Amino acid sequence: MSAPLLSIAELKALVRETLMPARIHAQAVEIQRRESSNGKPFYELRLRDADSSLLLRAWNDTPAFAACEQLEVAAPVEVAGEFVVNGSFGLEARRWGLRVLNDAEAHALFENGNERADETLGRIRGIIATLADPRLSALCEEFLREFGVRFARAAAARANHHARRGGLAEHTLRMMEAAQSLCAAYPELNRDLLLAGTLLHDCGKLWETCPPERGFDIPRDLRGELLGHITIGIEVVNALWRNLPLDDWKNAVPPSEAVRLHLLHLIAAHHGALEYGSPVLPKTPEAFALHAMDNLDARIEMFKDAQRQPETVPGVLAWSRPLNVHPAAPLPAFDAPS
Length: 338
Prior knowledge:
Elements (H helix, E strand, L loop, with lengths): L4 E2 L1 H7 L5 E16 L5 E8 L4 E7 L3 H8 L5 E11 L3 E11 L2 H9 L2 H15 L5 H20 L13 H19 L5 H10 L4 H4 L13 H21 L13 H14 L15 H22 L4 E3 L2 E2 L21
Parallel strand pairs: 1-2
Antiparallel strand pairs: 2-3, 2-5, 3-4, 5-6, 7-8
Helix pairs in contact: 4-5, 4-6, 5-7, 6-7, 6-11, 7-10, 7-11, 9-10, 10-11
């Protein structure tokens, strides 16, 4: 029986301290030849799929080493071997080999997640359709019309949370759903402003952390490196705003210029602190709410990732660098006895 084909995230969730045979399909996003302290050569191969990444080492006395010598960066590959969690190094592969995927397999790999992305965008569009302010509604619709394809594949970060193709849209949807509940609890919040700001708060990441059309790696972009996503986001919103038929709403209350400035403030202040990159601190309840939701969703995603790690002692998980703690294992939901 052949080893099961798993995603990298599934592999990380299932493998423990006993060897487990498995196969993964992923993209080789980085191949580096290195030497150990005693001069023994090896390759570091970084793999990515739609949800996660994995670093493998191929030593010079293994078939994987020869395969890495011939492998091109960005090639779609299958890695098959025995996987185990090593307490010192985390997830490792033993007796593993790789091959380049055929065209059909590569197509399936890169298409994986597109259906989920379509569903995510559909749910976002459904929320946008509920906006009452025609200016914010038109702005959000124009953003999705012009940049929806790029938005669907962008990552929310390079590491720590939603650091994957499509992660930005997933992060944004969760925040928008949270914003709807928050506005129900706090009706004094401007619902249209908060939802539009949530959709657009990270739109600069379409240039800062966006994989290519056919790939999972998150390359560096000159615009993203020089300006950062907050500055780019303000630029994008201003450019889209200028294309709106503002004369149609010249008598609207509140005035369009006030709406634009409040929206830009949400983008500028969403990191919540000057030392975290925001040029201003949150000065409206909507700006503070957006910052809080952004932090909340990121943290919950970090906990979800950390909870895939093995226990070091009963009830305590391996160290999480993003959270800076040893997380506790999750408490199961209550299940009433029958």
